[in-house]
UniProtKB/TrEMBL annotation:
Gene3D superfamilies referenced in this protein's UniProt entry, alphabetically: 3.90.1150.170, Type I PLP-dependent aspartate aminotransferase-like (Major domain)
Name of the protein in its database record: Glutamate decarboxylase 1
Keywords noted in UniProt: Decarboxylase, Lyase, Pyridoxal phosphate
Native species: Canis lupus familiaris
Gene: LOC483960
List of residues that carry N6-(pyridoxal phosphate)lysine: K384
Cofactor(s) listed in the protein's UniProt record: pyridoxal 5'-phosphate
InterPro entries the UniProt entry points to: PyrdxlP-dep_de-COase, PyrdxlP-dep_Trfase, PyrdxlP-dep_Trfase_major, Pyridoxal-P_BS
Length: 573
């Protein structure tokens, strides 16, 4: 593809740049403030004929002409003009440079505290279309220019989860090295089921899993594991393997071959445990929730009592799910005491450390997970506390061979035993999936970039920020902490009391009013795009805010800002 008619094109572009563009409210020009003129001009230059090269050289430092050159080209070319449909590597390069430029501009805005976290619109507005951003699909291809506008708008109307004032989820932040890893993964576009199609990635996964076993404390055993699509699926794996270990006949005969089996989890445990029970045919009624203490930790004596009661009813306990870092309170169940009970009753111990697993990397705080080395299986989500881009979760099994025995189906078209390499690296038959996304490379690359010490420093800083936030709130009359004691983890739960509620006596009337405060404040935050923080009720506690620290961009100034913002938005409620 060669650009010809240079003089006509240049006259049009120069005219538009002087007459039309200065008055145009161009989303594109806003997006391209960080335009790399050199790279862009080079890509246009390469696909131009001799006389056009001369004109482009003369326009080398003219933003408007460069922009309009791309606009002219992209308007008349479509995705089918890119590789591999046509031999147009230069047009492909030009297009991808523009995509990269959009992403770089977005990253810069994400880290800028002056930028809104989101430009909120209701679902019906997005469905109807906004300022030329139409989500409906057409029968005919759109131009490259339209695709790039769509890329810009998709980011514009989304949530900047890497923003320093985004506190809404356990997974937040934007790690640039991890992002680079995800780009490479998408470009490689391969599957994780066999070594022959993912040789580097499958070996990488083996190395990462071995590192995680050692950190847990399984260094002396030959453990096993796999990266799974999220903590809920990792928890499902843990329960699936626990059941298979005790009842291997389940694989062939199904649930009819089993007695009425039950499992135990704390009342603060993740809802995915019940979901797994429903999926596996165990039933949610057979998930027994164990009472917690005032900080949300499972009470071992209550667990023992529940096990004995289940046995008296003719039920058969098979698994206990302990939590290391609960979603709301950040609580850590007493793992050693639970492990003792598991050994006494010969039960499988699964630890859901999806949120808290990252603390194992900190010498200052890893003792909170003391006893995890006694678990039979562990869920650990590096996409949470470690800040790896979503998603990145591992299920780790202390006994090698169980994952494969439980899930293996020996599909002959994938898992031939007579390949030219060591088929132990064909991991696909361990999984409940067939196709599996490459989630390991971004974690591996980040570990290379930070080292274990870098992750440790990052996690220790989150813990210090949580303590700082707690101490500031403790001094403020219009804030009340859900727990008076210092936070166990990076979760800090609290209420905000508007002036009018401070003098209402504690009771139903005050609770009814307090229940409405957090939702109203958050709604205003979202509409203004200033910050994001979650809230929820829990047990007899009406709606309260839950602050979590897992964003490397967050500083003390952002914490102070959030407190001021809650007061600003809530003082007249």
């Amino acid at each position: 593809m060669v650009i010809k008619k240079p003089y006509i094109i240049s006259v049009i572009l120069i005219f538009l740049s002087r007459v039309y563009l200065p008055t145009r409210d161009s989303m594109w020009m806003n997006t391209n403030k960080n335009f790399n003129h050199y790279e862009f001009l080079e890509s246009i230059y390469l696909i131009s004929d001799k006389s056009t090269k001369y004109i482009l050289s003369a326009c080398f430092n003219n933003d408007k002409i460069l922009y309009l050159t791309w606009l002219f080209i992209s308007f008349f070319f479509f995705p089918l003009d890119l590789l591999p449909s046509k031999d147009s590597k230069d047009l492909t390069k030009c297009f991808l440079l523009q995509v990269a430029n959009i992403l770089l501009h977005y990253i810069k805005k994400t880290f800028d505290v002056k930028t809104k976290i989101l430009d909120f619109h209701h679902p019906h507005q997005l469905l109807e279309g906004l300022d030329g951003f139409n989500l409906e699909l057409s029968d005919h291809p759109e131009s490259l220019e339209q695709l790039l506008v769509d890329c810009t708008d998709t980011l514009k109307y989304g949530v900047k989860t890497g923003h320093p004032r985004f506190f809404n989820q356990l997974s937040s932040g934007l790690d640039v090295v991890g992002l680079a890893g995800e780009w490479l993964t998408a470009t490689a576009n391969t599957n994780m089921f066999t070594y022959e199609i993912a040789p580097v990635f499958t070996v990488m996964e083996t190395i990462l899993l071995k590192k995680m076993y050692e950190i847990i404390g399984w260094g002396e055993t030959e453990a096993d594991g796999i990266f799974a699509p999220g903590g809920s699926i990792s928890n499902l794996y843990g329960i699936l393997v626990a059941r298979y270990k005790q009842y291997p006949e389940i694989k062939r005969q199904g649930m009819t071959a089993l007695p009425c089996i039950v499992l135990f989890v704390s009342e603060q445990g993740h809802y995915s445990v019940k979901k797994a029970a429903a999926i596996l045919g165990i039933g949610t009624d057979n998930v027994i929730e164990v009472k917690c203490d005032e900080r949300g930790r499972m009470i071992p004596a209550e667990l023992e009592k529940n096990i004995l009661e289940a046995k008296r009813k003719g039920q058969t306990p098979f698994c206990i799910v302990a939590t290391a870092g609960s979603t709301v309170f950040g609580a850590f169940d007493p793992l050693h005491a639970i492990a003792d009970i598991c050994e006494t009753h010969r039960l499988w111990m699964h630890v859901d450390a999806a949120w808290g697993g990252g603390l194992l990397l900190s010498r200052n705080y890893s003792s909170k997970l003391s006893g995890i080395e006694r678990a039979n299986s562990v869920t650990w989500n590096p996409h949470k506390l470690m800040g790896v881009p979503l998603q990145c979760s591992a299920i780790l099994i202390r006994e090698k061979g169980l994952l494969e025995a439980c899930n293996q189906m020996r599909a002959g078209y994938l898992f031939q035993p007579d390949k030219l390499y060591n088929v132990d690296f064909d991991t696909g038959d361990k999984t409940i999936q067939c196709g599996r996304h490459v989630d390991v490379f971004k974690l591996w690359l980040m570990w290379k970039a930070k080292g274990t010490c870098g992750f440790e420093a990052q996690i220790d800083r989150y813990m210090e920020l949580a303590k700082y936030f707690y101490k500031v709130l403790k001094k403020k009359d219009n804030f009340k902490l859900v727990f008076d004691a210092e936070p166990e983890f990076t979760n800090v739960c609290f209420w905000y009391f508007p002036p009018r509620l401070k003098h209402i006596p504690k009771g139903c009337e005050r609770d009814q009013e307090l229940q409405k405060i957090a939702p109203k404040i958050k709604a205003q935050m979202i509409e203004e795009g200033t910050a994001m923080i979650s809230y929820q009720p829990c047990g007899d506690k009406v709606n309260f805010f839950r602050m979590v620290f897992s964003n490397p961009a967050t500083r003390r100034a952002d914490v102070d800002y959030l407190i001021d913002e809650i007061e600003r938005l809530g003082k007249d409620l």
